[in-house]
């Protein structure tokens, strides 16, 4: 998540106060804080004001349960309204918080070790009738507490309190009335293991690059879009032989699975940083396909197997939820202006908007190269299609962003990439 997206999450997060009557004379007060996943927030038009787990809905993100004096009782990770993990921080330091985020520090055997950061923003509020409302601006967000690392695993069993307002679930959701005297619990649902990277394990070159890339936040951000917490798609890695100058290829979704095929033979003859670029390039393709699956509400996005109404709904959903993808597909594939040749919409989008993202991920993988090298590698596969470059560095079917560079810029990028590949140690198997 970049800083702009993080700010959207911070701004959209909300807290509800819940009064729970127990017996004739006991009333408990709990704060329930909702911090949405960015993808969920984007699908909701950046407005989650109607979220309320007591009524049941498709919320995806983190829910923090606190006492009125802001003692954290439990934190829950939800996907589509279902609790998939419950976290009890060992350190329940009393802090008034507005939102939180988790930073992945280690991952092994299906478990993640994370550290939660709690941020505070002081706001002006006043009571109007029986409602507290904001009356002024909020201060800047300030980090007030960081938890000790703790482990999130996926225990066996099912959660008896999913979308269940029954008082018997108060222990699970609100942290009291528990038979063990604790703060609640329950067993999360086991998320599916939907990243299949087994094909990489027996290839030292690919496995080493992939493992190191997993420690780079720029790559890990996209990879986690396919983890068991949030994804609508399975992600598979495969090794195969690809035609021409193709080193990697991402297939459109098929029955809910997206496959990235890598040509291990060709990649073994290139430097590890170039191999890293192929991983990054293809995972961005996979992420775009994943968003298209969300829009289609299907494990397939082939319009030829959709009914007319499904096609209409798919296009409308893509336009409403992922307007950037919609715009580029209309502009470059489905509604191409007269006199313009159709081209690859994803490559057009990546060439225009993702070069800096790829460069950043490459630097996280290996920070020993020059900016010229990072840029030259990032442009690989995004220049267009055709058998050879002309004297100005253009291909027969160049992407718009590549055309918009000067001839000297194009030629420099081509030469820098060629020199780097030829003169750098190769990623031998």
Compact overview of the structure:
This protein is α+β, with helices and mostly antiparallel strands. It is 34% helix and 24% strand.
Report on this model:
Helices cover 34% and strands 24% of the residues. It has 2 domains: 3-174, no CATH class; 195-423, no CATH class. Helix 8 (272-296) packs across helix 9 (308-321), helix 8 (272-296) crosses helix 12 (355-365) and helix 9 packs across helix 10 (323-334). Strands 1-2-3-4-5 form a 5-stranded antiparallel sheet. Strands 6, 7, 10 and 11 form a 4-stranded antiparallel sheet that branches. The protein has helices spanning 3-12, 38-43, 170-174, 198-201, 204-213, 217-223, 264-267, 272-296, 308-321, 323-334, 345-353, 355-365, 371-378, 400-403, 407-423; strands at 14-22, 26-36, 61-67, 72-79, 82-87, 99-108, 111-120, 123-128, 131-138, 142-146, 150-152, 195-196, 234-239, 248-250, 257-262, 384-385, 397-398. Strand 8 and strand 9 (131-138) form a beta hairpin.
